[in-house]
Amino acid sequence: MSPRCDRYAVIGNPIAHSKSPRIHTLFARQTRQELAYDAILVDTGTFAQAVDEFRQSGGKGVNVTIPFKQEAWELADSRSASAELAGAINTLSFYDNQCHGDNTDGAGLVRDLVYNLSIELKDKKLLVLGAGGAVRGVLEPLLEQKPERITVANRTSSKARELAAHFASHGNIIGTGYDDLERRPFDVIINGTAASLQGNVPPVPEACVGRDTCLYDMMYRSDPTPFMLWGTRLGAGSCFDGLGMLVEQAAESFAIWRGVRPDTVPVIRQLRSEMDGAAEQ
Ligand code: ATR
User: What is the pTM (predicted TM-score) of this model?
Assistant: First the structure.
């Protein structure tokens, strides 16, 4: 690889286990693009400085992950409409002395659900769990699919209600606490909480899961997440983790930077087999 090839990076904390460098390397190989992609660990309070240093050293763009997506939003000179609304940015592009921000998380989620997994969202009842940064980034692209309604449920119910009010002009959306959820099966339940990271499952009433309900965890692991195991136990129609979303949001970023959208299916398959292989070792 030429030492002067275009450079990109993912910035976050923690970052050691990030799959983004692997994903972008596979994309670059597939599309015959010459680029380098690193992972940069940044301490709290030094995000803007780290971005500036990377940019000054010739970097063309960065992906931003936990916990800096909101800071990235503040840092950007300009933002896409959906990033503007989300209040969070996962993709920064540097050109013409500008720092432009996008949020590709929601497009990645929708693409995985609709194209890869063939899950219909139009006219469906969606339940989205959580009201943090991860959920903010996906609500508008989900609403664009014209579901019958999105219910956002959160432990702190006021945050769910605030979020629903923020997105209300984009579709039919309500916010609630878990206790007040209607006891009827939803079509799709998307887990955007941090509960899986702690090995927990959000306290969703079991009646919300029916045999046609599809469960999607925005988190991924080599083995099923606690949320997926919970859904399987209740007889849910299907349960998926968020590996496809991860690859799809990366593909959206790659397309913004490089002008070409990679074929994601072989990359998702490759990562899944690498994760399965690592789990067996
Ligand atoms: P992120 O940027 O990953 O979304 P965040 O903004 O800290 O992180 O939000 C974490 C989300 O997970 C919140 O919706 C949080 O609920 P609260 O707002 O009530 O704190 C939710 N969450 C975290 N742990 C949870 C758990 N054990 N059960 C249910 N929800 C949980």
Answer: 0.95
